[in-house]
Design a protein that fits this description.
single chain; 207 residues; mainly alpha; Arc Repressor Mutant, subunit A
């Protein structure tokens, strides 16, 4: 009876994983499915080591499902926000002048290069980009509907998510890496944006 239920649970997870075409996690679910299938091909389930491997895979499946749900919720919230802030009348096409496009790419490159620099501020941003403070605010608002500070913070938080998902750094290391000298303040900012502390996020979503 136990073995039958165990096998049924395995098949259910395999089918669910194979049907997953989530764009965020690419081939991860199908890889997990293949792992489960290979375990099911083993003779019987009397081997405790084999059972432990399957239990571990079940945990990975649950973690992947949580990550998918989190990313889909975040994407849906972003879509709703963008939709609600759109004007009633939209042009058919929007073309960014070549100067603006180059300036935008340069701005992102500057943020990337200074992502660990806790002293990076608006004055430094303007200086490196070669624009006035007023023009910087106007351009960033046009590009991303952010203030310059919000854009820098958003970029840092997204990088923090990437590092926490890898699970190779403790929270304080991630904090320093994304330009926050005070890990407590970093945790506060992260919680405000994602609804979880960095530790909670890492525990729930780290690969």
């Amino acid at each position: 009876m136990i073995e039958t239920r165990f096998k049924s649970d395995l098949k259910e997870n395999i089918q669910e994983l194979n049907n997953s075409g989530n764009m965020y996690l690419a081939d991860e679910p199908k890889t997990r499915a293949k792992n489960l299938e290979s375990l099911m091909a083993q003779p019987a389930y009397k081997n405790e080591a084999l059972k432990e491997q399957v239990r571990t895979l079940f945990k990975e499946v649950a973690r992947l499902k949580s990550r998918i749900e989190f990313l889909e919720r975040e994407n849906e919230q972003r879509f709703i926000k963008e939709r609600n802030t759109q004007d009633f009348f939209q042009p058919n096409e929007v073309s960014i002048p070549s100067f603006d496009e180059k300036l935008f790419k340069k701005a992102l490159r500057i943020i990337e290069e200074n992502i660990s620099n806790e002293l990076f501020n608006i004055s430094a941003f303007c200086s490196e980009l070669g624009v006035s403070r007023t023009l910087l605010f106007l351009k960033v608002k046009t590009w991303a509907n952010f203030t310059p500070n919000e854009l820098i913070k958003h970029y840092r938080m997204r990088r923090a998510v990437q590092l926490l998902e890898k699970g190779k750094m403790i929270v304080s290391e991630v904090s320093y890496h994304v330009g926050y000298k005070n890990p407590k303040y970093f945790s506060k900012c992260f919680s405000e944006k994602f609804g979880l502390t960095p530790s909670q996020f890492q525990k729930k979503y780290a690969i």
